[in-house]
Amino acid sequence: MTTVMQEAARCLLCEDAPCSKACPAHTNPAKFIRSVRFRNVKGAAETIRENNALGAICARVCPTERYCESACTRAKIDGPIDIGGIQRYVTDMERKENMQILHAGKENGMNVAIIGSGPAGLQAAATLRQKGYGVDIYEKNAKAGGYLTYGIPEYRLPEAIVDYEVQRIVNLGSNIKYNVAVGKDITMDDLKAKYDAVIVAIGASAAKTIPMFEHNICTESAISFLARAKENKGKLDDLPDNVLVIGGGDVAMDVVTTLKKLGVTHVTDMVYEEFSEFKASKKELEGAQKEGVTIVDGYVPTDVRQNKVTFKHRKIDSEMTITADKIILAIGQKVDADGLNIDIQHNEIPFRKVRFHTKDPKVFATGDIVDGDKTVVYAVQKGKEVAEEIDRVLGGQDND
To answer: At the top level of its lineage, which domain of life is listed (predicted)?
Structure first.
């Protein structure tokens, strides 16, 4: 078994490291791997944290095969460096040794409200606190984290890690107001009157559906199922032995793998894409296949009669009908911006001039409602960038 130090020793120490250029959050793998190689774990943690306040989370859920590891020079020789594994080791050591790396900047007298405590909102809060802004986060749920808390399964992202990352951001001076829904419990106008800027970081928290399934009593959304599984600590008494899942992204892989881990005997996943165009990460796909999930690619649903669904292949003359005791739709998420008075088109904010700016000069947007990849690492990038844009607009000082 390869140790972390042995893996770090495989690094070629590229002068113009392509892995660092390929990281959306600019976490700089080349630099933190070099630190690990010379046994400077605190220095490695500092490198990770100066660019990524959610480094321990990204170490577990980032699809590194798409980003840093795909660009690794070593990939062309004998396989890429396990960058995610090294980052996980560093952040685990940081947690074990209780390293205090991030610090709030000198207060500048300005305050920002953030709507939503998902990864983009949390990163924006961390960056703003480092720049000296007061930060209040408004979270409609009882816990922070958004999809990190209520969506990603425990086997991929332990609740303790999310709680740890959230607490670090609270320790910087961010104040999280739980069980407060903006647009219902407090208005956007109230926030604009109280704060110098408002960030909308609500993510895409509502489930998409297919019209034919809307009133089907056998159907549940992936968002609902994963939230129930997480809240009930993986103990669900209402699961039958035969479940059909429709969808082929990472969320669908979370659903099918969770079903198998909960003891469901027959899990069938019908996917619109063929394997050559699969949206799920290779790691998550392989994990589902290892659990024994039946995955059928290239099929689209054409009819549903309660628990019986008929599919037709997109490219060949083939039809298939599956009867299941439960159907879970994992076909994507959409934005629910009710009461926020922001313009949403095609599930995103249509920026008129500068990215992150809405039609209201005091209101900014970030996260999944901003164009770009819908991954945690991209949410981190967008969270940093919106904070930097607010700092530019408000003329704040970036204090050490």
So the answer is: Bacteria
Across the chain, where does the E strand assignment appear? 111-115, 134-138, 175-177, 197-200, 206-207, 219-221, 242-246, 266-271, 294-297, 299-305, 308-313, 319-323, 326-329, 333-334, 363-365
pLDDT in tens, 33-48: 999 999 999 999 999 9
Q: Give the amino acid at 125.
A: A
Question: What residues make up the domain containing 349?
Answer: 111-205+335-394
> What's the pTM?
0.94
Contact status, residue 102 vs residue 189, Cβ threshold 8 Å: no
Residue 325 lies inside a defined structural domain of this protein: yes
User: How many other C-beta atoms lie within 10 A of the C-beta of residue 340?
Assistant: 21
Burial 372-381 (b: 16+ CB within 10 A, else e): eebbbbbbbb
CB-CB contact of 275 with 265 (8 Å): no
Residue 54 domain-assigned (yes or no): yes
Dihedral of alpha carbons 198, 202, 203, 208, sign: negative
199 vs 259: CA distance, rounded Å? 36
User: Rounded to whole angstroms, how far apart are CA atoms 304 and 210?
Assistant: 11
Domain of residue 23, CATH code: 1.10.1060.10
% of the chain exceeding 70 in pLDDT: 98
pLDDT per residue as tens digits for the range 363-399: 999 999 999 899 999 999 999 999 999 999 998 544 4
Contact assessment for residue 120 and residue 383, using Cβ atoms and an 8 Å cutoff: yes
Give the relative orientation of helices 159-171 and 119-130 as an angle to the nearest 10 degrees: 30
- The predicted pLDDT at position 398 comes to 42
